[in-house]
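Structure first, sequence second, as always.
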């Protein structure tokens, strides 16, 4: 007699959750899972680092009256990123005995929020960390906040006379302002204005590298890039400046390879080419002294170590070391002094800074029938066939084979399709079709549950996990809070911020509350791959306790690019820190009210109220409602105008 050994499945742990959601791969040490099964963010309390629960932060906000969704900003993470980049270059410069300095600039366009610029200019002063402005409004913001005479303000983008004058005035006042030539025609205007103002401008030139990169932003570099000068135009600038006796004004070579370069080899290739162009300009007699590498320092949104455009196969330390080494090799060969280095790393600085926390409002899922289904004797044959398959799915068949599972799947799909066809021709009624669909999905649910243990031969069954997903409706707008997800298929890490000691039992697609088919997240990085659904817990909506998800790495671009699809406005925002062991909530900003959003699209809230009041009064006159009801209705209308554009609990 033999005894069958059954292996007991070990209980789900926080380590399982950390591995499933990849938090330690994309979290960069800033985010982790606590022993209580909650996502924590590591914040500095004096000189110590302390993990703080996101769920606890949200509880504190709700106790203070702040509703979800909420964007939580962590100034500590912004400061750590500034430290990591600047200290990384400082260390590489020391080790390589590099003779130039590093002077990074933050590109304002990546996140223009006042709090970000204020934090960067105050904290970054110890590194003489500057700003990059690509428009007149950004230059005005930079001039108001950047008063460090050793930091650079790099002016990119198209420049009109007013822009140029502001830059020259700032230079006259002692700021280090560099105007970068983006197109040949700018040079004449800059020279004309500088002569009239009696200022010798500090000039840079943006060069189109031949080196190209992969990913969403490959078009930022290469011969086909929109901005910058080609080699012939570059030499024309040199000749013009020489003729004007102003070649000493050309101080900087600039290029921009892209916003997120996942492969370090592509970065090194571009740096090498740019360094050779830089040395050529020095040999032409230009004063030079500065090499601006633009952006490109990547972060890992999916944790896949450079396998995708949303990841990175290098860290900050390797990036800094490779940049220094590549420039050193080229300049040594040419006999040219080491230039000061500027990078315009924006995404890598601010992406970790913000986390969007949302709550799940509802779930749409198929609930399969739990028992046998009784059919009438005269039921259509198709229904009886589906009923036989459904009955088989209810039996505990320990001898189920891969071939039989495939056969059941094929038969169910055939009967379902034929049922729909006969309904279209009027041969089957609405109730019979409903009953058939119910049995079909019951069979599919059973088949899906057997795939892992029994296996399958691929084909259409590969899509089973996608077909059998739930829809979780989240209290947010993709278009307002995650525009890059919709526009360029950007991957953002998404995971529950609590209940991580429990095994997730559902696979879900995350839908927002807009009435748009694109308003969803259906690409997730977990388990080491990109999947069309995300393992989540049953939110247990009826319990009254919110199921909360965090959407991470949203600090770069998302706040500025968000739009008013369905007139859903900005979310609530709060900055969080920890001092003496206690959470501090600062800069609490209420999200857009309905009246504010309507005013953005040219409605006058007072006029709206007047129009609706007139409608209500006409209803009173015609005896449809009473005066008391009018007062209640107007109260509801006016409360709606004052309210949050998102669902309020």
């Amino acid at each position: 007699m033999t005894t069958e050994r059954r292996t007991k499945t070990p209980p789900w742990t926080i380590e399982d959750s950390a591995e499933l959601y990849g938090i330690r791969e994309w979290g960069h040490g800033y985010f982790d899972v606590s022993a209580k099964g909650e996502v924590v963010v590591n914040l500095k309390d004096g000189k110590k680092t302390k993990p703080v629960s996101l769920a606890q932060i949200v509880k504190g906000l709700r106790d203070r009256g702040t509703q979800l969704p909420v964007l939580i900003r962590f100034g500590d993470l912004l400061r750590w990123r500034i430290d990591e980049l600047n200290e990384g270059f400082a260390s590489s410069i020391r080790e390589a005995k590099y003779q130039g300095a590093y002077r990074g600039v933050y590109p304002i366009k990546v996140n223009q929020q006042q709090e970000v610029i204020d934090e960067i200019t105050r904290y970054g002063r110890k590194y003489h960390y500057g700003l990059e402005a690509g428009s007149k409004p950004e230059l005005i913001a930079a001039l108001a906040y950047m008063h460090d005479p050793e930091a650079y303000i790099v002016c990119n983008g198209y420049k009109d006379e007013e822009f140029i004058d502001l830059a020259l005035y700032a230079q006259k006042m002692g700021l280090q302002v560099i105007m970068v030539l983006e197109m040949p025609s700018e040079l004449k205007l800059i020279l004309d204005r500088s002569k009239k103002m009696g200022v010798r401008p500090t000039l840079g030139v943006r060069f189109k590298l031949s080196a190209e990169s992969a990913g969403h932003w490959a078009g930022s570099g290469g011969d086909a890039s929109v901005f910058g000068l080609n080699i012939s135009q570059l030499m024309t600038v040199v000749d013009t400046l020489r003729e004007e006796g102003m070649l000493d004004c050309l101080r900087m070579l600039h290029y921009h390879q892209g916003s997120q370069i996942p492969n370090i080899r592509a970065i090194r290739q571009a740096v090498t080419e740019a360094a050779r162009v830089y040395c050529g300009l020095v040999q032409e007699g230009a004063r030079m002294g500065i090499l601006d590498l633009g952006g490109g320092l990547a972060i890992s949104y999916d944790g896949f170590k450079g396998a995708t455009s949303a990841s990175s196969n290098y860290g900050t330390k390797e990036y800094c070391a490779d940049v220094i080494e590549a420039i050193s090799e080229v300049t040594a060969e040419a006999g040219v002094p080491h230039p000061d280095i500027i990078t315009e790393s924006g995404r890598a600085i601010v992406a970790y800074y913000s986390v969007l926390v949302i709550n799940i409002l509802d779930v749409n899922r198929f609930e399969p029938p739990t028992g046998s289904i009784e059919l009438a004797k005269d039921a259509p044959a198709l229904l009886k066939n589906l009923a036989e398959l459904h009955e088989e799915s209810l039996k505990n068949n320990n001898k189920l084979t891969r071939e039989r599972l495939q056969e059941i799947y094929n038969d169910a799909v055939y009967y379902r399709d034929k049922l729909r066809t006969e309904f279209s021709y009027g041969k089957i009624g609405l109730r019979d079709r409903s009953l058939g669909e119910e049995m079909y999905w019951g069979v599919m649910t059973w088949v899906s549950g057997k795939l892992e243990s029994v296996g399958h031969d691929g084909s259409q069954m590969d899509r089973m996990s996608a077909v059998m997903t739930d829809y979780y409706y989240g209290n947010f707008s993709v278009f307002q809070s995650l525009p890059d997800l919709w526009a360029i298929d950007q991957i953002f890490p998404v995971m529950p911020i609590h209940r991580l000691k429990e095994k997730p039992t559902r696979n879900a697609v995350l839908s927002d509350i807009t009435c748009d088919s694109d308003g969803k997240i259906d690409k997730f990085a977990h388990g080491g791959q990109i999947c069309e659904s995300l393992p989540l817990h049953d939110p247990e909506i009826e319990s009254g306790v919110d199921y909360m998800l965090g959407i991470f790495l949203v600090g770069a671009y998302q706040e500025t690019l968000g739009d008013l699809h369905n007139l859903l406005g900005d979310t609530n925002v709060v900055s969080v820190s920890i001092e003496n062991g206690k959470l501090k909530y600062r800069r609490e900003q209420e999200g857009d009210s309905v009246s504010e959003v309507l005013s953005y699209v040219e409605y006058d809230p007072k006029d709206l109220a007047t129009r609706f009041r007139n409608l209500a009064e006409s209803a009173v006159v015609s005896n449809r409602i009473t005066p008391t009801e009018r007062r209640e209705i107007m109260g509801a209308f006016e409360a709606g105008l004052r309210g949050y554009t998102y669902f309020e609990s």
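Margin note: The chain has 22 helices and 25 strands.
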